[in-house]
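Weekly sync notes, structure subgroup
Attendees: PM, AL, DS (notes)

Item 1: joint prediction request from the bench team. They want all two components modeled as one assembly rather than separately. Inputs as received:
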Amino acid sequence: MRLSVRYFAVLRERKGVASEFVEVADGATVAEVYSQLFPTGAGPVAYALNQATVPADAVPRAGDELALLPPVGGG
Amino acid sequence: MLRIVADAIDVAAVRAAVSHPDCGAILVFEGVGRNRFGGRPVVGLEYEAWPEVAEAELRKIAAEVEARWPETRLAIVHRTGPVAIGEPSVVIAVGTPHRDAAYAASRFAIDTLKERLPIWKKELYEDGAAWIANKP
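Output from the run, pasted for the record:
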């Protein structure tokens, strides 16, 4: 199924884009999607589906927007 | 005024947003670019945000401030993009009838936004750069 994925900070630099569409297996967790996109790892992330934070074992549905959020540094 | 902006913050405007005849105390906090990180000289900063979610989070923080310190006026502006050493990345202004609430609300706002806002900071050194997360 297809998801849109948003990247920020170090992840955006690694991918070279701020967002893209990706194909993932049905039933994949957000953590599994992260591993698929960054097979050698890219540091700890938090996950958001459709702008709401979700745990690592959340399972996205087709058309969802997944955001991968490195540790924040605002303020 | 609860905003993520892409340009230099108008500090006077943030203060003006909380000024009111019923405020006996106005406190302005500025988070400012600092020239050192762990002894390594920092020559500049860059901030990146998820703007719509960050602004929604600012509104949640404002609601929490209102619940805990009623009659507090609050304005928060955080910028993205390059920030020079000495320049503000975030400005928080609070206006309250009396000062106790101003100190408490201002502290709560900066502590909470540092923990929750989807904003990332890159430190620029003479010989490289690094994304730096806030301490938990």
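Discussion: Chain B has a mean pLDDT of 96.
Action: AL to compare against the crosslinking data before next sync.
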